[in-house]
Amino acid sequence: MYRETQIIKHAQKASSNGGNLEEAGDLVINVGPQHPSTHGVLHLVITLHGETIKNVEPHLGYIHRSIEKMCESLSYRQFIYVTSRMDYLSSHINNHGCAMCVEKGLQVEIPPRAKVIRVLMDELTRLASHQLWWGAMAMDVGALTPFFHAFREREMINDIMEETCGARLTMNYMVPGGVMYDIHPNFQKRVKEFIEEFKKKIDEYDELVTGNIIFQNRMKGVGYLTKEDAISYGCTGPTARGSGVSCDIRKLYPYEVYDQVQFNEIIETDGDCFARYLVRMQEMRQSLSMVEQLIDNIPEGDFQAKTKAVLKLPKGEFYSKIETARGEFGVYIVSEGGTTPYRIKFRSPGFSNLSALNHMAKGYKIGDLVAIMGTLDLVIPDIDR
Length: 385
Hints:
The chain is of the alpha+beta class. The chain contains 16 helices and 8 strands.
């Protein structure tokens, strides 16, 4: 019934534009909302002329959980971990952004040890996220083998997370003032083992996929997004940097110890799917370099600043932003001086990046849509919230 309603609606829209679907030769199809895989539940209503895309209309909200409203009834310690369930592939980083916003309100000074541990966890999270993206991206366009390679290396990071935090996906490790507990005694040893292993494997990634001529033909010149349009749509992260936009929060507004490590902001200017792919591939190398720089330089001392058991933010408005694997994640808190926030608003990177999908897909073939969506790296709970 819903599908029939959509077709009627689009037929009426086409009619109002001077012709009906049959006269124009258009076809309206539904992609989703069923998706029993890792990307979440997204419904696209696509208008086609032959195999050429004329319009893509995303329908959101299938896994909307009213997270922002929920946070208003949670304490300043509790609400942080709800964000693990948004972009679940950047859960450490989401929690970090929330903790930073609370710390800004409390004016708490974070111990140097906690700062380094936080950045190490963030970059390991970014690596794990990009590994999953690489495997899923290749599989989406027809290469099954890379998916297993990606999960093989990602498993090493998950094991480190499980040993240190007690969980593999939604770690709940960041707290206002630092981290919940100190790193595991095996942490440095296992991270070094991962560094040595992944240095060899990432070259294997390029050999398997990046240099593959079939893969390049699927990606190059597809899903073009200009620098101006990326800015206009509010795109951030690798999606924007693939179009030449300098927007890495870690470089522009350094937090924790990002101003003390050497790394490059990866920017490509071609603006197509292959450019966005290259950005993420190079970002993995940069994250690996940062982890390598920090792993033997974790300061001694406290892993958490002293804070009260029950936190109260002073009356006012507080905002923090952080660079997740998909772009800028913003946390906005309005406090009335109590133990719970009056209002919380999250600025998720996926929502703005998805808004550019229709613009990027128009004029391309239906088969190209899979590649375009893959290079946006959408995590739908981050969009629906």
